[in-house]
Fold this protein.
Amino acid sequence: MPLWLPVTLAAALFQTWRTALQQRLRGRFSVGTAGFVRYIYAIPVGLALLLGYRAATGGTTPVPNAGFLLGCAAGGLAQVVGTSLLIMAFGHRSFAVGTAYAKTDAVQAALVSWLLLGETLRPLALAGIGVGVAGILLLSLAGQGLNPRALLRATAQPAALCGLGAGAGFALAGVGIKAAVIALAAPDPILSALLALVVTNTLQTAMQGAWMAWREPAGLRAAFTGWRSGAWVGTLSACGSACWFTGFALAPVALIRTVGQVDVVFTLLFSRFYLREPVGRSDAAGLCLIVGGVMLVLAAGH
C-alpha cells in the first residue's frame, strides 16, 4: 500500500473532525477569529511533529530557500483566500451550488498541477476524478431540483462563482506546497512537508493576524482569550495539514484531492450513526460514486 493513501485518509478524517469542532464554536468565534486560531495554534503542534519526526528518523532539517518560501507563501495565501470564498458562498442563497462548485478542487488541481508542475495522470485516474466529482455534485444538489442544464445556468450566480474560486484556492494551495517541496529538493519529502507546514502556518498567522488587527481587533483579542477552545482547533488543523502536505509531497496533487473527498463520506457516516439522521437514496448513490472514483484513482496508481 502506498504511504500517501493512509496519510490522505487520515487528513480527511482530521478535517472532518476539525470542521465539526468549528461548527460547535461558531457562536463563540467570528469567521476571522476561527481562521486565525486555526493557524496560530497549529504552529506549536506542527513544530512538535517536525522535531519528533526528525528525532525518530535521524534526519536533518533542510535549509529553506527562496523557491520553498515562495511556494509556502503562495500556497498559504491561496488556502486563506479559498476558505474566505467558501464562507462567502455559504452566505448566498444558492448554498448547494456554491458547495458543489467548491468541491471541483480535484479537477482544478489536475489542470493547475499539469500546467505549473507538469504532473500528468493516467486516463483511469482522470476518470476516477470525474466520477468522484459527480458523486459530490449529487450529494450537494440532492433535493434542490437542479438538473445538469439548470446547474450550468447557475454558474453565473454569486454562490457558484465563489465556490469555483474556493475550489481554485484549495487547488492552488496544494500546488503551492508541492512546488515548495520540489524547490527544497531534500532527500526526505516527509521532512520537507512538515517544515512546509510550520512555515506556511507561520505565514498564514501573519497574514490573517495583520488583516484582523486592521479590520477586526476585537476578534483578534477573542482568539487569545479563548485559547482553550482555539488550541483544539489548531491541533486538529495541524494534524490534518501535516497529512495533506505529506500526501502532496508523495503523490500528484489531484490524486490526493480526489481521495480526500472521502471527508464527505465520513461526514455522512457521522450523521447517520452518531446523529441518527436518515440517509436518502441520492445520498447513498453519491457515496457510491465517490467511493468508486477513489477506487479508480487507486487502480490507476497501481
Remarks:
- The longest helix spans residues 158-184.
- The radius of gyration is 19 Å.
- The CA atoms of residues 268 and 279 lie 8 Å apart.
